Amino acid sequence: MKHNDPTDISLEVAASTFAALGSEQRLSVLRCLVRAGHNGLSIGELGKRTGVTGSTLTHHMKILAQAGLVTQEKQGRSIICAAIAYDAVRDLSTFLLRECCADVAKKCKEHDHG
To answer: Which end of the chain, C or N, has fewer beta carbons within 10 A?
Structure first.
């Protein structure tokens, strides 16, 4: 999911990206990679930190990568996984909140989203 303007996100793209996050294990993997920063983690370390290993982790990483939320790069004998989702997740949040209180006469001040 690559967007420069969050207002450009279509409902279809947002739905497919949210679907990729629709698993507790995938969400845990993504959160762990976000915590690790741009350097990412080896697939082994990611598995240790999340408790998701083997073919299950491979499956979840494939779905997250297809959604454009993570990358996997071979470095020597290791596979390094990293989150690239920072802008995409921010765009998804904006997608959800941009019409907050749009159908009410008095706009909600406590939910001022920008």
So the answer is: C
Q: In the chain, where are the structural domains located? A: 6-97
Q: Tell me: pLDDT of 83 over 50.
A: yes
- Of 29 and 2, more confident: 29
pLDDT bracket for residue 1 (50, 70, 90):
very low
Kindly report the CATH number that applies to the domain delimited by 6-97: 1.10.10.10
Length of the chain: 114
Q: What is the dihedral of CA 83, 85, 86, 92, to 10 degrees?
A: -160
Q: How far apart are CA 23 and CA 6, in angstroms?
A: 23
